[in-house]
Design a protein that fits this description.
Order of helices and strands: HHHHEHEH
Strand content: 5-15%
Strand order of the largest sheet: 1-2
Number of helices: 6
Largest sheet: 2 strands, parallel
Number of strands: 2
Radius of gyration: 18 Å
Structural class: mainly alpha
Amino acid sequence: MPSWDSAAADDLWTEACGKDRCWERRSRWSEIFGRSQTPGYGNLCRRGQVLVLYARERLCRQLAASGASARAVDEAKHLFDPNALTLGFARRFATYKRPNLLLHDPGRLLRILGNPERPVQLIIAGKAHPADQAGRALIRSGSISSGGPRPARM
């Protein structure tokens, strides 16, 4: 949705799909996203890097405040690759939103996240409503985690 992205991202999506977000034009995605000289591409990369830096800083503060070891705080400073495609999901966790669909095909997810030629990483944040026991259980179970660092409250 155009309201969910920056002006630079909106320009890039408009170039790829038209202002009406007509997904039939998605065959142009590889043409547009395959060129690092595309107007707006550099800005999108910088925004991804800013997201990674923010996530690192926030996690370091959170770990320090919770009494984590100095080593854990130091390791958090190096989480995530600022040059990888970073997809962020920040939303209320509720079972009806089906956040565990990411793990529907774990092998495929691992191939996507583990591709060294096209690195992709996920930042997932959110919490369940205090009365949503099923959503809270989903987070506690770690069933939405791929096995990597999983801060409880970011």
